[in-house]
């Protein structure tokens, strides 16, 4: 079966502190991969024309092509807003996903993409929560991001609510499982088996 890749690039966010995990979750072994980031990158790569990793530093041994790494300009502050600022200076429109959501189906990504045309942000939501960092982001939000950074506002929800946004509902909570703690990591490992 031939895969027709999505036209927009994918960026995997992998620059967080992992404070609840107690160690860098992107470097934890996952499924048949040496690390969670390697699993996520290789899983998504066939479905996008271009795929990148956003991080504070280069900690990815498997990533041979260093042009696929987007390093945050600000190294001191941990904020997805700062990562988005760097990313959206590079791309007009991009699919954003976090390293710690490795179970999201390609069909769900496709649904987000197909419904994103008239919006600056299109994100996923399940009954339990809104997944602010799983969706399509447009460079039209650059001014809001720059203003937020100037005012030291780093809440992704603030960005969403102040943009032309749309939420797409999904039913499967497990698909959007976010690996923040050991118990979620173990649950994800059991699901992926």
UniProtKB/TrEMBL annotation:
Name the record gives this protein:
Probable molybdenum cofactor guanylyltransferase
Which Gene Ontology molecular function entries are recorded, alphabetically? GTP binding; metal ion binding; molybdenum cofactor guanylyltransferase activity
Which SUPFAM superfamilies has this protein been placed in?
A: Nucleotide-diphospho-sugar transferases
Does the record carry Plastid as a key word? no
Q: Which Pfam families match?
A: NTP_transf_3 (PF12804)
* Comment on protein domains: The N-terminal domain determines nucleotide recognition and specific binding, while the C-terminal domain determines the specific binding to the target protein.
Gene name of the record: mobA
| Single biological process term from Gene Ontology | bis(molybdopterin guanine dinucleotide)molybdenum biosynthetic process
